[in-house]
Amino acid sequence: MPNDPAFLALAGVAKRYGGAVALRDVSFSAGRGSIHAILGENGAGKSTLMKILAGAVAADCGSVTLDGRPLRLDGPAAALREGIVCIFQELSIIPDLTVAENICLADPPRRRIGTIDRGAQRRRARAVLDALGCGSGLDVRARCADLPLAKRQIVEIAKALARRPRVLILDEATSALSAEDAERVMRHLRRLREEGVCVLFISHRMHEVDALADTCSVFRNGEHVATFPAGSRTHDEIVRLMIGRSIAHVYPPKPERPPPAEPYLRVRGLARDGVLKGIDLDVRPGEIVGLGGLDGQGQRELLLALAGVLRGTTGDVRIGTAAGLPSGPRAAGGPGRRIALIPEDRKTEGLFLGLSVAANLSFAALDRLSRCGIVDTDAERALVAGLAGRLAVKAPDRDAPVATLSGGNQQKVVLGKWLATEPKLLLLMDPTRGIDVGTKQEIYRLMRDLAAAGVAILFHSTDYDELIGLCDRVLVLYDGRVAARLSGAEITEEAIVASALNLRPAASAAGSRRPHREALA
Amino acid sequence: MIPALRLLVRHNDRALAAWALLLALLLLFLSIHPRGASGGVLAAWANQGVALAFVAVGQTIVVLTRGIDLSAGAILALCNCAASALVRGDPAEVALGIAAVCLIGAACGALNGLIVVRGRIQPIVATLATGAILSGVALLVRPTPGGSVDDRLADALTGTVGGVVPVSLLLLAVLVAAIWGPVRASLTGRTILAVGSAEPAAYMSGLPVDRAKVAAYALAGLFAAFGGLFLGFQTLSGDPSVGASYTLNSVAAVVLGGTALAGGAGSVAGSIAGALVLRTVGSLIFFTGLDPMAQPLFEGAVLLVAVALGAGRLLRIRNRLEVFR
Amino acid sequence: MIPLVRALPRPVAAPGPAGVIALALVVLLLAGGLADPRFFSPAYLLQQLHTGAFLGVIAIGAMVVILTGHIDLSVPWTLSAAATFSTAFVGAAGEGAQGELGLLVGLAVGAGIGLVNGIGVAYLRLPSMIWTLAVNMVVLGVCVLHAGLYASGSRPSAVMATLGGGWIGSLVPNAVVVWMVLSAAAVFLLRRTVAGRCLYAVGTRESAAWLSGIDTRRVLLGAFVISGLCSAVAGMLLAGYANQAYQRMGDPYLLPGIAAVVLGGTSILGGRGSYGGCVAGVLLITLITSMLSLLQVPEAFKQIAYGGVIILMVGYYSRRAAAERA
User: Fold this and answer.
1) Within 10 Å of residue A504's Cβ, how many Cβ atoms?
2) Which of C126, C135, C142 sits opposite B311 (nearest CB)?
3) Most buried pick, A214, A268, A369, B271, via CB within 10 A?
4) A134 & A170 share domain
5) A178 plus A64 within the same structural domain
6) Same domain for A323 and A369?
7) How many angstroms away from the CA of A429 is the closest CA of chain C?
8) Residue A140 CA from chain centroid, whole number
9) Whole domain around residue A500: which residue ranges?
């Protein structure tokens, strides 16, 4: 089989979302029969690249060629016809269909009259699962909605393999799998490589990259920075390529020492069935405490529980003058606790996209802007003007729907909406995801100013860089527990990465190429 | 086979409950009927419910895509009126007439689908509007109730086979099995389910989403046409004003039969049971000697309680954000 | 104005619902006037406005519920029940001040039905389309049990008759005044009160409103109670206008009420829409109806015209929205 290094080639591909550049003039190629790792920070453009290849997003310009032939990727169906198959992080399986139906979803075995041959479909699904080696104990007749996340991810992978891809793209596709299953999937990927498939592999787990990849490409800020044979650079060098800029001037200076004060938030033994397994933490007024770790280690649940969203959470909690967890968001924002939760998904949980900038900014504070249920429009206008000025929201005018704003400005509106309530404890869930660097910088400065004014801030981020640059202390969660508590000079990329993988810091710092099995255990 | 059976039961529990309820109601109905349990009584019972059952089958297919067809009653009325003008004469004319009526129904449905897909109008608004248009057309076809339908065929279709089994039920079963059966088993049918369950995932998986939606509305139109035809055989005439109650009752039958209005899961069989339950409750009350003036209240209360049972899912919710999904 | 770092240009938008409908109204008036000069007479137009007022009151309730992303299908029998029971009370209590308490009975019926609707939708999280339909059937059952299938009810009270059928010095129908007063209240509710903001917020994204500390269930409950009250007011006005309450008097108002709201640019998914558009929608439907009546167009073409107008207008709105997003 010819090892064509430009089997899949992109030339001059660019993509903008509103004002934000997601991909800038990317040229890139990957060979047949190779496993090609794509590395980069969150927001580096990896996901956009993948969506373009999958036909989910149309590039603004540039071309994609496969095996020397230019492609027109005007929809997922077109990409699939060309043999480009993606395994998405957000699952693309249909919850109400069975395992077999999902695995053979768009191209099921059919009888001559066009009806689906369910027996053959079950057999084919079984065969794919067996080839993958993960299928034992998975009933192909079970409905996918009834399966646990790890099993659904196996179905997702099997579904992609059943399409016999020429190009297979994985986006963090093994994140929910057990160690054994992840190992089996990796073995299968190597087999596919032998069969001549081009595998593109996005992962934040360096040990998986070490174990699998032939070639690595690093992306940063929407640009393709470097491509090199796997193993030719150390982890430190790769991380430097990924970060690529000095951290210092992006972040406001940290205060010399945290102010001595009673903790505003005090949590002991917070637990919730299988997700949180006894978390202790304190946050003082004036302090920014970071929450780090791999995705899905309980960070999200911790913040939601503190805001009163989750039922069935136990533990000893004191917030401000109030004891116990709030009974709901209304109680959380009430006078005793003064909590503001900046939710993860600003489009569905933070904003009213169809409503105006002004209506969004004042909404959470309407209680104090009204008398007898009637809004004092003068006070509202003053509040909105104050917030919009303080946050430097760029909008056509205050009556424009918030949906017309760029992502960064939308996030500012979410923040402003909560600042209007003058909170004492700010819970932030990954507030800078998908936002340009300039706006990020403004948000960092705002957070530091708030802390200086005495607000206690608990800040969950998937971006290690932020945790290092911004936070006074960092807690790294692993499997529902606090794996490490870092403060001051201890907050380093190595320390965070190592504790996120539940390794001892030394192992990671050594930059060894040996796969860390214990990370998956 | 036992685990397969158990899965089958678990995935269709609400449809099975509807069938169990129907069976109980039917037994009760036959036991209290003054003429006793006979083929004739059974046929009369079935004839009461089959037209609604046809419409409910079509409604289910649309609801499975997370849509709704508020024009179903209007299509039924139009087809009923068309039948009263076309389905008569010699056998060849009757056959052609039936074919024409079915074609009209399917075309109306396909129009709905195209407006939803191409016009990007919410199904509830789009079918509300086409419903108004089609009831207008029905009035043009037959301004007042009347016309006639081939009565030999009507006799045959509303009678019994061997004095026991109602022909209307057989007709329902055969048509549903012959039309929805193959579609359900095809890629289009799979896409109909997938669109209702998770439309973005269906699109990302390369399924023919638009085609499936148009097909679903076209099938709904076709089954509404069957309903209109059967109503013609039952009443031997056409009536432009029969539609309104069929639209909303078909939605009620779908919900009673265990199909979620949020789409994705449910069954045509459940909706048939739902439709027959709705009609049986009416007939039952008629024969229980309950004050006739209390009948509508009783019927309404049955529907209310059945719908309220759907609130059970709230008890299982742990993350309170899921309440809003 | 808020201080802006950089003013961004706002794209020039195609005319919105109110503009399109205003245009349509002008065209319709001119066309109607050319076809038949009677169309231009103020007396005729006021007569049309009189019948439009009942629809207008119903549309207020329909709009409030649709703004939250739900729908109230119990309008027909809420309307009939309020008319039936209020007039029945008048019949039992006799004319005079006592009889006027019938107004309160009617309002209580409307609010009570709205409460049941709201509890099902907001607290039991049942789909409004089917729950309000079931409530409608139960109310129908109660009315039938009370008054028989076709029995016409008793006479309205003096106030009902005056408000529903009377005129201010043969200049303005009282029902139009009631509609205008309620419209003013609706505008105030939607634009100036916390409750109004909450209606839009819940309709746009209920989860975000809940996370913002709003008890969204109470908002939904309130919306359905308002809808019930509006239906009740319309029912009593109609009873006053027709000088009787009768079964099925509400049937012709359900779909036109929803159509008026949707034509007015309110999104059926909730969260978007202005009250001005709703009024324009009511006027458009009323004008189309009266014009077609004047031209003696058969009922069939009226239906076809309604449906065609809805598809054209809503199709236009959705294309416009899509163009704005791109």
Assistant:
1) 11
2) C126
3) B271
4) yes
5) yes
6) no
7) 13
8) 30
9) 263-338+424-439+456-521
C contact chains, 3+ CB pairs < 8 A: A, B
A289 and A386 co-located in one domain? no
Domain boundary among A243, A271, A292: A243
Domain span at residue B282 reads: 39-307
Chain A residues with CB inside 8 Å of B194's CB?
94, 96-97, 105
Q: Find all residues with CB under 8 Å of A157, minimum gap 6, and list them.
A: A87, A132, A134, A170, A173, A185
One domain for residues A119 and A222: yes
Residue contact C10–A351, C-beta within 8 A: no
Query: Which residues 201-230 of B are in CB contact (within 8 Å) with C?
Result: none
Q: Are residues A59 and A183 in the same domain?
A: yes
SS3 content of chain B, % helix, strand, coil (to 5): 80, 0, 20
Say yes or no to pLDDT of A284 above 90. Answer: yes
* φ/ψ bin of A268: left (φ > 0), alpha (ψ from -120 to 50), beta (otherwise): beta
Q: Does residue B234 lie within any of the structural domains?
A: yes
Q: Inform me whether the pLDDT recorded for A124 exceeds 60.
A: yes
**Residues C289, C294, C299, C302, CA torsion sign:** negative
Residue A91 to residue B201, Cβ atoms within 8 A: yes
**Pair (A461, A476) in one structural domain:** yes
- What separation in angstroms does the CA of A123 have from each of A119, A129, A184, B194? 6, 10, 20, 21
Q: Give B175-214 pLDDT, tens digit per residue.
A: 999 999 999 999 999 999 999 999 989 999 999 999 999 9
Q: Which of A96, A98, A115 to mutate to test the interface with B (most CBs of B within 10 A)?
A: A96
Cβ–Cβ contact C34 with B under 8 A: no
Q: Read off the pTM.
A: 0.87
Residue A48 near residue A15 (C-beta atoms within 8 A):
yes
B197–A contact, CB cutoff 8 A: yes
User: Which value does ipTM take for this structure?
Assistant: 0.86
pLDDT of residue A258: 63
The burial of A229, by beta-carbon neighbours within 10 Å (0-12 exposed, 13-18 middle, 19 or more buried), is given as: exposed
The order of strands in the sheet holding A473-478 is A339-342, A425-429, A456-460, A288-292, A473-478, A481-487
Q: Please report whether residue A448 resides in a domain.
A: no
C325 and A403 within 8 Å at the Cβ level: the answer is yes
- Alpha carbons C135 and C236: distance in angstroms, whole number: 20
- Cβ separation A374–C194 shorter than 8 A: yes
Identity of the residue in A105, A115, A349 whose CB atom sits nearest the CB atom of B205: A105
pLDDT in tens, A320-363: 888 999 999 999 988 889 999 998 888 888 899 889 999 999 99
Question: Considering its fold, how many domains does chain B have in total?
Answer: 1
Residues with Cβ within 8 Å of B69's Cβ and at least 6 positions away in sequence, in order, are B58, B59, B62, B109, B112, B123, B127, B217, B220, B224, B247
Q: The domain C17-28+39-314 is classified under which CATH number: 1.10.150, 2.40.128, 1.10.3470, 1.10.10?
A: 1.10.3470
Gap between the Cα atoms of A105 and A159, Å rounded: 7
CATH number for B199:
1.10.3470
Read off the CATH number of the domain in which A218 is found: 3.40.50.300
In a domain, A273, yes or no: yes
